[in-house]
Design goal:
By secondary structure, the chain is an alpha+beta fold. Helices cover 32% and strands 29% of the residues. The strands form two sheets. It has a three-stranded antiparallel beta sheet with strand order 1-2-5, with no helix packed on it. It has a two-stranded antiparallel sheet with strand order 3-4. A hairpin with a 4-residue loop joins β1 and β2.
Length: 115
């Protein structure tokens, strides 16, 4: 609401870059991961989910909420989205893509508002 035009442009540029990166990783992985045969064995799935280099796509979320930040005790919430997307390069090599995408919310400092 009280953002400058350049700050808005930076946010929009950051969001477009994040969206482009996520879409690029998703579509390229879909084409490369299609070679893998689906496994319906729950034991194999449980074992693969514990392996950090397994051929599984996972999207964990991490939320950090902090209170009493700065001189005015503002609230900050940071949601980190961490997709892990493996891509098979060869039969013996996998490329693991991992991006950390933060979504940050911070209350406005009451002293910074005009008026």
């Amino acid at each position: 609401m009280f953002m400058t035009r350049t700050f808005k442009q930076q946010i929009i540029r950051y969001l477009w870059l994040t969206l482009f990166s996520f879409v690029f990783m998703t579509f390229t992985t879909g084409a490369w991961a299609a070679d893998a045969a689906p496994s319906h064995d729950l034991t194999a799935l449980a074992k693969a989910s514990q392996n950090p280099v397994a051929n599984l796509i996972s999207v964990p979320f991490e939320n950090n909420a902090t209170f009493n930040n700065g001189t005015e005790d503002v609230y900050v919430n940071i949601l980190n989205i961490k997709p892990v997307i493996p891509m098979g390069i060869t039969e013996n090599w996998n490329l693991i893509n991992r991006a950390i995408i933060p979504a940050i919310y911070q209350e406005d400092d009451p002293n910074d508002m005009p008026g």
